[in-house]
Amino acid sequence: MIEFFLNGQPQRVAVTPDTSVLELLRGPLGQCGTKEGCASGDCGACTVAIAHPQDGHPQDGHPQDGHPKGAPRALAYRTANACITPAHQLQGAHLITVEGLARGDALHPAQASMVACHGSQCGFCTPGIVMSLFALHEQQRKTPDAALDPHRLEASLDGNLCRCTGYRPIRDAALSMGDRADVRPPWADDPALEKQIRALTRQPAEADDDSSTPGYQTPATLAELIATMQRHPEAPLVAGATDLWLDVTQRLERFDTLIDLRQVRELRQIEEEANGWWIGAAVTYREWEPLLAEHYPAFAHLLTRLGSDQIRNRATVGGNIANASPIGDTPPVLLTLDARLRLAGPEGIRELPLESFFLDYKKTALEPGECVAAIYLPQPRADHELRVWKLSKRREDDISTLLGAFRWRLRDGVLADVRVAFGGMAATPLRLQAVEAALEGQAPGEDAFEIAKQALRDSLTPMSDARGSREYRLTAAVNLLERWRLTLARADSNVPTPEVALDAYAH
Fold first, then answer.
1. What is the fold of 2-199?
2. Whole-prediction pTM value?
């Protein structure tokens, strides 16, 4: 049994561990405005907005938006794909759907703008687009004097696909929301609502004393998590569910038991140390982004290419690593930064370099009963530089065909501390030590890079799949080395480097 609020109204419903928010809405709750399109978190037709009192920043971590650490925070409504969001994670939250926006016949600015700008044709995708615009409008209301940044606009809509209208009217609708009457949903006038939401427990209402029974398990501490994993060794771990839930929607699997990581305090923290940060495995990309933007802007920019707003609001860095996909976007970058992992299990805590974690396709160094607890991100040196380039068939919300990450520093005109890593080339993300050795201590000229390119060709036999052939991947990887050389040459000649060459690149 879970308790939450839906469009301002309290709900108490029973759900099975493998029920999605979309199934709950269109089934027992009878809210059919939210549509199922792809059932894989790609199209955005099922977009809803969710506010949870504990979401928005890790409790003991890096402060965001100037908010004092540990103080209560106004509810932030973040978009999510209902098709791949577990229903039990609504516990203690406020769920907003397209039915909850209008006030009688008076439309919310997101709805009124879509009507006025002819942003809808068949209308199937429209509810999801409206919900993305609603979340954007809520953010803009907090900073009314700030102009809508084009990047923020694109990021807000990058998870919503429309096959018939065209995006210009939708963009026009987004830009004109501020010109509409600021109609607030009826639930927004309830001064007691936020207090009532905060009063809900984070634990399911039916939490049994005997936690060995099947169902959704919600441990609150790392010790409880390890004990729960021992009692339910067959149960999948779930945090953002952006990958796991495809087993339900695409492969029709069913789970009798799930172990939810979102309540585990140690996994939701960002711990700052003298020389870096331990990022809890259940910290979302949205929560991680401010720290990266301050210290690793190239890495932060990559996050704009990782999934969509709906995905980044829920997906976790720990999931991207533990999933051990060869096309995961963050592992190659973390390899160049000499990241380490903290693993927790029945034998205690141990650490190992990220480079030692990936053993083979979907095979890792995790022992039975272990989980990824945190990722160590070292502080950058002032003279270190980082570049990340992702190749994919479309810019937004797409899987990598190939991703290259490069870190270095220039010392007396030669390259030092060189790190080169690629994803999408083999069964695991790889550091290419032969390429690093070819460039270490060398002036960044054509001769050194020609040797590095040959070392790359000799080191890799790329895979072929639907996203790219072996030959394409090898050619593209060599070309990224050339892009890196050109970036260094521009910097050396004081020629401004194009923005696209600073952070991420779409093919």
1. Ubiquitin-like (UB roll) (3.10.20)
2. 0.90
